[in-house]
Amino acid sequence: MPRTDLLRVTVAAVALFLVAATLALRLDDYLLYVVTLGAIFATLAVSFDVLLGYTGYLSLAHGALFGVGAYACGILTAHHGWPFWAALPAAGLVAGAAGAVIALLAFRTRGLYFAVLTLGIGLIGHQLFLVLAGLTGGVGGFVGIPSPGRPDWVPLDQNGWNALLALALLLATFLAAQLFVRSRLGAACLAVREDLTLAQALGIRVGQARLAAFVFSAIFTGFAGALFAAISNFVAPESFTVLGAGFQLVALVVVGGMGTLWGPILGAALLTALPEALRVASGYSLMAYGVLLLVFVIFAPRGLASLATAGLARLRTGAGFRAAPAGERRP
Amino acid sequence: MSLLELEKLGVRFGGLVAVQDVSLAVEEGQIYGLLGPNGAGKTTLVNMISGLIRPTSGSLRFAGEAGGPWPIADAVSRGIVRTFQQTRAFLGLSVRENLRIAAAASGRAADAAELIEAFGLGPVLDRPAGDLPYATLRHLGIALALTLKPRLLLLDEPAVGLTGGEVDRLARLIRDWNLRGVTVLLIEHNVRFLMSLADRVAVLDRGRLLFEGTAADCQRNPEVIDVYLGRRKEDA
C-alpha cells in the first residue's frame, strides 16, 4: 500500500485546511456562515461518498441520520447539560448505531430496492422527529442548543470559531475516509461495488464490508449533524427531510464526483456557493440542484472531479481536452 | 489422504436434479480434469465445491477436514479458490486495483510482482480491466485467484474462446503453478487441452458421474466415447 501517497494527501489536505481557514476568517459574518455551512455539507458529502461512490449503495436515509446526530447533540447539551465536546462523539456513536440498524435491514436488498427501502426509512425518520415532540420539540423545532464551547485563549469570536470547527471536522472526516478507502475494508467495498459475485469468490466478507461502509458514513454524518445543531442553536425536522438533506447529499456527491473524496468537497462548495450567489432565486435552490444533477449525469457523470482531473492533465501535457478518461463505467 | 473428497454430492433445483451422487477424490498436487457435455452439471459441481450454492445432499472433505462444503468465504480461507466461466474481474478498475483488492481480500497474499510477470500483466497495470484483450483478461482472472494462494484452484473452462497459441500459453501457466504445489480442478470443454494437462479425469453426464480414472483410460472407455468423445473418435 502506498504510504507515501497517503502522506502526500495528508500534507496537501492540512495545507488546504490552513489556507481555507486563514482566508475564511477574513470574511464578513454572512460569508463566514456560508463557509461554515459549506464545510458541514462537504463533511456530509465525503462521508456519504464512502457509501455511494466507494461501495455503490444509494442511501436515502442519510438525511434522517444527519438529524439523529443533530437531535442527539441537542438533547445531550440542552436537556442534560453535556458539554459540546462530549456530545459530539456521542452523537456520532448514536448515529452510527442507528446506521447499523438501518444497514442490517437495508442490506437485505440491492440496487433499486435498497434505495427505495432507505427512502422509506428516511421518511419514517423525519416523521419521528415530528412526532417525538417531547424529545425533539416537534414541528416547532428544538431551541436553545448551546454553541460549541470556545476556550478563552482562542482569539476568535463565536462565528469564527464555528467556521474553524466546521473546517476542522471536514479535514478530520476527509482523512478518516482516506484511511478507510485505502484499508482492506475499503478494498472490499470497491469489490462489492464492482462485482458482488467476484468479491464473494475472492473470500471477501461482503456483509462485513458494506456494513462497515454504512456505519462509517453514519458516524461522520452524525458528527456533522451535531456540529450543525450546535452552530445553528436551533434545529427543526424540515432540515432532515428525504427531499431536502437526503437528496442534497446525492446531488453534492454526484455533481462533485462519486468515488473520489475531494470531488464531493468541490460539489459541496459549488452547491453551497451557488444558491448564495443566486440570492434572487433562493426559493429555487432545489430546482438548481436538480438542473445541475441533470447536466452532470448527462455530460460529466464522473462529476467535477473528472473535469478537474482532465483539465489538470491537459495543462500538464498540453494535449487536447478530453472529458473523462476512457473506460469509465458505472454499475 | 486426498486433498478433496466428494461424498455423494448432489443438488436439486425444485424438481430438477442438476447433480446427483457425485463421489470423487482429488489428490494433493494433481491436475484433475472434469469433462462433460453442456448441461452435464460441471459448473454446478464447482459452484457447490466453492460454496456459491449449497448442495441438497452429500458432503465434502478438504485436507482431512470434514463438514464441507463451506460458505464461499470460509472455503476461500481454507484455500479453495475458483475462477468463472465468463471471466470475472473488476472491469471498471485498473489491473493494479484488481490485484490490490485480491491481495487485501487475503490475509496471505502471494507475491504480486511474480504473478504480474508470469501472466504478462506488467504493460497493462494501469488500464481498466474492461479494456483488456480477451486472453489478457483471462490471465487477470486466474492471477486474481492465485493472489489468494489457493491450495485447490477450480478453473471453470479457462480456455474457452482462446486461440491455439493462447491455449498453449495458458496450459504452461497452469502446469507451472501446479508444479509449485497448487492442486487444480479443471473443467474444460476442449478435450485436447484437458487431456494434455490432467492426471486424472472425471466425466459427468446429466448430473451423474459417468467415468472416473486416468486420462488414458478415459479415452478408451466405450461409454465415454459414446456419450461425449464419439464425434472425436477418429482423432482420439
TrEMBL record, chain A:
Q: How does it sit in the membrane?
A: Multi-pass membrane protein
Give its localization.
Answer: Cell membrane
Q: Name one Pfam family in it.
A: BPD_transp_2
Q: Print the keywords alphabetically.
A: Cell membrane, Membrane, Transmembrane, Transmembrane helix
Lineage, top-rank taxon, reads Bacteria
Give the matching InterPro entries. ABC_transp_permease (IPR001851), LivM-like (IPR043428)
* Record has Transmembrane as a keyword: yes
The transmembrane residues are: 7-25, 31-52, 59-78, 84-107, 114-143, 163-181, 211-235, 247-274, 286-305
Against CDD domains, the record matches this protein to: TM_PBP1_LivM_like
Protein name (Swiss-Prot/TrEMBL) = Amino acid/amide ABC transporter membrane protein 2 (HAAT family)
**Species lineage, top-down?**
Bacteria, Pseudomonadati, Pseudomonadota, Alphaproteobacteria, Rhodobacterales
UniProtKB/TrEMBL annotation, chain B:
Q: Which InterPro entries match?
A: AAA+_ATPase, ABC_AA/LPS_Transport, ABC_transporter-like_ATP-bd, BCA_ABC_TP_C, P-loop_NTPase
Residue stretches making up the ABC transporter domain = 4-231
Record's keyword annotation contains Transport: yes
- Reading the lineage from the top rank, the first entry is Bacteria
- The answer to whether the entry has keyword ATP-binding is yes
PANTHER family per the UniProt record, alphabetical: AMINO ACID ABC TRANSPORTER ATP-BINDING PROTEIN, CONSERVED COMPONENT OF ABC TRANSPORTER FOR NATURAL AMINO ACIDS-RELATED
Its protein name is Amino acid/amide ABC transporter ATP-binding protein 1 (HAAT family)
- Can you name the source organism? Cereibacter johrii
